[in-house]
Amino acid sequence: MSQDLLPIGRFARLCRLSVKQLRHYDELGLLPPAWVDPDSGYRYYRAAQARDAMSIGLLRSLDVPLAAIGQVLAGGDPAGALGEVRDRMEADLARRRRALATLDRVLAEGLPQVAVTVRREPARRVRIERDAATPPSIPEATSRCVARVLAGGVPTGPLIGLFPLDLAEEFVVGVAAEDPSGPQILPGGTFATATHVGPYDRIDLTGHGLLAWCGERGHTPAGPVREVYLTVPGDTPPEHLVTELMIRLEDQ
Question: I need a labelling partner for 37 at 20 to 30 A (CA). Which of 70, 94, 103, 164 fits?
Answer without folding.
Answer: 70
